[in-house]
Amino acid sequence: MTLALARKFPGTPLEDAVRRYPDVPRLIILKTDVQRRGVHYTEEAVSYLDPEKHQTTGTHIFGARDGVIALRPESLLLRDGTSIITTPTPLEENPYVVDLRDGRPWLFDAGVALEEVDYWPAPAFYGKDSSSGVPMKNIVSARPQRLNIFPYRYCTFWNNGKGCAFCDIVTQLKKGSKELKIPARLDPVEVGAVIGEALKEEGRFSTVFLTSGSIIGGSRPFDDEIDYYIAILKEVGKNFRTPKFPSQLIGTAFEKEQLKRLYAETGLTSYTSDIEVLNEELFNQHCPGKAEWIGYREWKKRLVDAVEIFGPGRVNTGLVAGIELAGPHGFRSEDEALERTLAEAEDLARQGVSTVLIVWSPRPDTALGAYKNASLDYYIRLARGLHALRVKYRLPIEHDSYRNCGNHPDTDLSRLLPLWEE
């Protein structure tokens, strides 16, 4: 049954925000709010989904906001090509609604038709199987513009129950293995072969992306994680004619010698290590495994060390923006959270490390799942602040931009505004 009525009128919360922030494009504000509130697909919207043409949910390492694995669109595209990476959300949490209008999917809010959208197109390799008989989409998945490799769907910080408070990787691992038959650990040779098959679709993909849960084992902590990444990147690199290829790795904060190996032995061109929250006390509380094995100050030091190896503008860290306000120990106000977060982000920026945000989606199987994320105004102000730091310190963010990622409202701003004037 169609839930939304196709009608337009001014004065929606979205249009009010657009008027408050005239320097931020409307579609970036819309994208940010859709990520913040999530989406609900009507039956008609799901019926529009064609698995032969569109990507469907299920291949990523984190779960949906409603905790359900079902045949639904992977996510949405706006008419300017902007990706919206969002998750299905229960109706009682007031998500945006995706419904059909004149036979096409649109975003609705409270019955108001806001914007026509499209579903992510399925890559050509999605219909094929690997040499071992695994569907290729379960080995390498895709965003509209990049290839994703999730080689290890577990995080060993959970061995003693010290996984991050917002993370549901273990729950999703169990669901993925049982319901989707996704391998928990990928064979590097098979990954390289699937990447080669994907690249036959000329002009589709701009970069290769790699991330997994942390692996603490090895002669030194995280050597096993480094060895595994190197093995995979070497196999991926066989598909390119140059020593380096467009690529991004999100990994643990590695020691300098480990980073040197990663850079020297592979074609990797950029490195990200997510600190998740820019406050030592909240880091210790929400990321106890990272605090136990590395520590907040050492994590930041290793990010700065990485700039020596990968270069300024090739190293960044991510925030799960909104967790700094959650729970009894969170910041008391959004103003305080902005001031203190941006102050620490500036300390990193002046040393060559960029900070990007993702909009926190509280998931049901996590310690913070019962809390709400922040206001739309907060995310807009934080995005503007992070972008301003990149302008001030002349930090390009191409490897994590809308072209190569699409998950950060702040890096979307580099698309339409000059990063700096010469």
TrEMBL record:
* Residue ranges annotated for the Radical SAM core domain, each copy included: 140-398
Q: Which SUPFAM superfamilies match?
A: Radical SAM enzymes
Classification via NCBIfam families: variant_rSAM (NF045502)
Required cofactor(s): [4Fe-4S] cluster
**Entry keyword set:** Iron, Iron-sulfur, Metal-binding, S-adenosyl-L-methionine
Q: Which organism is it from?
A: Oryzomonas sagensis
Write down the InterPro entries for this protein, in alphabetical order: Aldolase_TIM (IPR013785), rSAM (IPR007197), rSAM_sf (IPR058240)
Protein name (database record): Radical SAM protein
Q: Which Gene3D superfamilies match?
A: Aldolase class I (3.20.20.70)
User: Which sequence ranges form a coiled-coil region, renumbered to this chain?
Assistant: none
- Answer yes or no on keyword S-adenosyl-L-methionine: yes
